[in-house]
């Protein structure tokens, strides 16, 4: 142990030779070391060339903090006040007034407005005018999208409509020679889905028979679909699309699984009874002819 004098307070204290070799043993305590830092400038401090963005006071900034882009405020208090303070501006995208913190430099109120403003700003540079393939509406498409043959439709609805007309049957890239059964292909049509949703909305999404809600509902044809197809002599999807009786909302009803099963069971029983009665009639007529 070696006796030394504290370079801040002048008090004598004992320290190890190994600490002196490492460059330590200058202060008697940590408090003296911290006090000396306040009075003495370390090697990585610059001159009074930084001004606080909030209060305007000059302060020292270490080189490492300046390299990282920090040291804009003299204290945590000023930083907090700057974050809490707001600026009001008019949005360049929608034209509405909006407020934001002072430390953020915003031109628009939201990301969608920012995209709109950029679109207007760089319209001539980055955009090409095209026509929607479905509705014929004029749309602005990015040059990058146009180069890859994209941006042909104005909305998702137009795209789905065009696909349902032009990418069906033999025109579809997934066509395998008509493997899908006719009844299944009917149920995948956009008209069928529209008819189904309209029936559900009319019945307020509850079973017509038992009044169940928040359950898996099935839309049933009051006059069965098979009978309608046979009566109207429908054999293709194009004929089915053109027939208005198939898509009549009054012919549909919302049923839960149990009620739908009961209804189909009753219909089957009626068919069986009618077929048995028809057979009996034919037998009676034959017997009468024989006699």
> In total, how many beta strands?
10
State the helix count. Answer: 13
Which spans have pLDDT < 50 for at least 5 consecutive residues?
Answer: none
Order of helices and strands: EEHHEEHHEEHHEEHHHHEHHEH
Largest sheet: 2 strands, antiparallel
Q: Within the largest sheet, what's the order of strands?
A: 1-2
Which radius of gyration do the C-alpha atoms yield? Answer: 41 Å
Number of domains: 4
What would you call the shape? elongated
What percentage of amino acids are in beta strands?
5-15%
Summed over residues and divided by their number, the pLDDT gives a mean of 83
Helix-strand category: alpha+beta
Tell me roughly what share of residues is in helical segments.
40-55%
Q: Please report the distance between the alpha carbons of the first and last residues.
A: 140 Å
Describe this entry's structure for a reader.
- The chain is an alpha+beta fold and 291 residues long.
- The chain has 13 helices and 10 strands.
- The chain has helices at 17-21, 30-39, 63-67, 76-84, 111-121, 123-126, 143-147, 156-166, 182-187, 190-202, 225-231, 237-242, 257-290; strands at 2-5, 12-15, 50-51, 58-59, 86-90, 97-101, 127-131, 138-142, 217-221, 252-256.
- A two-stranded antiparallel sheet has the order 1-2. It has a two-stranded antiparallel ribbon with strand order 3-4. A two-stranded antiparallel sheet has the order 5-6.
């Amino acid at each position: 142990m070696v006796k030394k004098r504290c370079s801040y307070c002048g008090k004598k204290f004992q320290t190890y030779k190994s600490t002196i070799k490492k460059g330590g043993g200058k202060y008697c305590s940590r408090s003296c070391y911290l006090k000396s830092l306040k009075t003495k400038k370390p090697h990585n401090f610059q001159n009074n060339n930084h001004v606080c963005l909030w209060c305007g006071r000059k302060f020292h900034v270490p080189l490492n903090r300046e390299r990282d882009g920090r040291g804009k405020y003299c204290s945590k208090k000023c930083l907090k006040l700057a974050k809490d303070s707001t600026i009001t501006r008019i949005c360049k995208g929608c034209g509405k007034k909006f407020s934001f913190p002072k430390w953020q430099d915003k031109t628009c109120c939201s990301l969608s407005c920012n995209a709109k403003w950029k679109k207007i700003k760089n319209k001539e540079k980055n955009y090409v005018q095209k026509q929607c393939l479905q509705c014929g509406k004029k749309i602005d498409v990015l040059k990058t999208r146009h180069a890859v043959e994209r941006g042909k439709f104005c909305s998702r609805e137009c795209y789905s409509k065009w696909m349902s007309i032009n990418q069906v049957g033999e025109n579809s890239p997934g066509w395998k020679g008509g493997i899908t059964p006719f009844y299944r292909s009917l149920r995948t049509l956009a008209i069928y889905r529209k008819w189904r949703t309209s029936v559900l909305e009319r019945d307020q999404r509850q079973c017509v028979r038992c009044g169940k809600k928040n359950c898996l509902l099935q839309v049933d044809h009051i006059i069965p679909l098979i009978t309608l197809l046979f009566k109207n002599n429908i054999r293709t999807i194009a004929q089915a699309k053109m027939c208005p009786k198939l898509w009549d909302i009054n012919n549909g009803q919302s049923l839960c699984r149990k009620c739908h099963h009961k209804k189909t069971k009753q219909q089957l029983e009626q068919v069986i009874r009618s077929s048995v009665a028809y057979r009996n009639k034919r037998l009676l007529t034959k017997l009468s002819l024989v006699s």
